[in-house]
Design goal:
- By secondary structure, the chain is α/β, with parallel strands linked by helices.
- The chain folds into two domains: about 15-40 and about 190-390; about 45-175, abc type-2 transporter like domain (abc type-2 transporter like fold, 3-Layer(aba) Sandwich).
- It has 14 helices and six strands.
- It has helices at about 1-15, 20-40, 60-70, 80-90, 105-110, 140-170, 195-225, 230-235, 240-265, 275-300, 305-320, 335-340, 345-355, 360-390, and strands at about 45-55, 75-80, 95-100, 115, 120-125, 135.
- The chain has a four-stranded mixed sheet, sandwiched between helices. The protein has a two-stranded antiparallel ribbon with strand order 4-5.
- Helix 3 links the parallel strand 1 (about 45-55) and strand 2.
- Helix 9 (about 240-265) crosses helix 10.
- The longest helix has about 30 residues, at about 195-225.
- It is elongated, with a radius of gyration of 29 Å.
Length: about 400
């Protein structure tokens, strides 16, 4: 036990003297958490749009004003022709182009006409399709284009429903008497639908992974470059003492980084943490077996810090892209979903999001915990065996 304590104390002293590592541990997570917390969002805002209004009536102008005054869009003014609208799309000045036809007001009038048949209200022209508009979308960024198109569709549908409700109220009829279906939706866990509440726990996972894997790998490789690792190996220390002694300080650093990320999420971004801190510590420990193991394994293969950086980023790139951070795992091909079963980042990201937003604990997340423990135990054991053979 004294040998472990000696190596751990030595590693803490080395971290304290290494200004570069201190900056990586303190400054890098602070900057990344603050910047990425604001930058990484699935929301699409300020989409540039232009409108070509062939109708010119008061209702078509009301549609234009509704869109122009919505914060989700940047209204670039009216287009003078379809050629002008297409030119603005071609030159990237707008992402959406809306064309209001010349018969818009007349078609809308027919669509919202109320006819009383057998004492029941009915929409006179609804079966004929109602008023139609044409939307041109810049689809280069498929995700943003789809989201912006959905936003615009929702805004126009709400406007149309207000027009219909107004016409019905003028005749003493409630809207719910006409609509065949109504849905009362309740949004749980994230009632304001803030994408930051979903993304920031994922950012915390990425930061903890980077810090623990990179610093552990660098620590051992620097010993190689300085020639002090061979000196350690000729002391009474065994390879397992060196590995665990170097891993423990960075495990503590990883827990501290996670607590810092949790504090920023709570205080700066108002992301609630509804889980148990003890459960968070247990799941984090299971996960960091993997990230620390990757750093140790890299140090046995790499001879320089540049090589260690390249190898760790090779692993982390796959882990991040296949974790569900950017794209849901369920949207991936089936064979890729099978591959992600061995990705510890996927499981810890799911655990952290569930604990933040749902308050889930051991009863709900024990399967993910077992996955992380199995993966982490395998990776860490393999890394230690590899280190032992290298040291031997």
């Amino acid at each position: 036990m004294n040998l472990f304590a000696t190596v751990i104390w030595k590693e803490f002293n080395q971290i304290k003297r290494d200004k570069t590592s201190l900056r990586m541990m303190i400054a890098m997570p602070m900057v990344q958490m603050m910047v990425l917390g604001y930058a990484l969002t699935t929301e699409v805002k300020h989409t540039p749009i232009a409108i070509l209004n062939h109708d010119g009536g008061p209702r078509s102008r009301a549609v234009s004003e509704t869109i122009a005054h919505n914060a989700l869009f940047d209204y670039k003014g009216p287009a003078v022709s379809e050629a002008d609208l297409r030119s603005q799309l071609d030159h990237g000045r707008i992402k959406l182009g809306l064309i209001i036809p010349a018969d818009f007001s007349r078609s809308l009038e027919k669509a919202t006409r109320v006819e009383l048949g057998n004492g029941a209200p009915a929409l006179g022209a609804l079966s004929k399709g109602g008023a139609r508009m044409q939307l041109w979308v810049d689809g280069q960024d498929a995700n943003s284009a789809g989201v912006a198109r959905g936003y615009l569709g929702a805004i126009l549908n709400q406007w149309a429903m207000r027009q219909l409700a107004s016409r019905l109220e003028a005749q003493g009829i409630r809207l719910d008497q006409v609509l065949p279906l109504a849905t009362d939706a309740s949004v749980l866990f994230n009632p304001l639908l803030k994408s930051s509440w979903y993304m920031i726990p994922g950012i915390a996972v990425i930061l903890v992974t980077m810090v623990t894997a990179l610093l552990t790998g660098f620590s051992i490789v620097k010993e190689k470059e300085a020639g002090t690792l061979e000196q350690l190996m000729v002391t009474p220390l065994k390879p397992i003492h060196v590995v665990v002694g170097k891993a423990v300080p960075f495990f503590i650093v990883g827990v501290a980084e996670l607590m810092f990320a949790l504090m920023v999420a709570r205080l700066r971004f108002d992301v609630p943490f509804r889980g148990s801190y003890f459960a968070l510590l247990v799941f984090s420990s299971a996960y960091m077996l993997s990230s620390l193991g990757i750093g140790i394994f890299t140090s046995t293969v790499a001879r320089t810090q540049q090589q260690a950086l390249f190898i760790i980023w090779f692993f982390l790139l796959f882990f991040m892209l296949l974790s569900g951070f950017f794209l849901p795992v369920e949207n991936m091909p089936h064979w890729v979903q099978i591959v992600t079963l061995g990705n510890p980042v996927r499981w810890f990201m799911h655990v952290l999001r569930e604990m933040f937003l749902k308050g889930s604990g051991f009863a709900e997340l024990w399967r993910e915990g077992l996955y992380m423990l199995a993966i982490g135990g395998t990776v860490f054991s393999f890394a230690v065996l590899k280190f032992n053979r290298k040291a031997g």
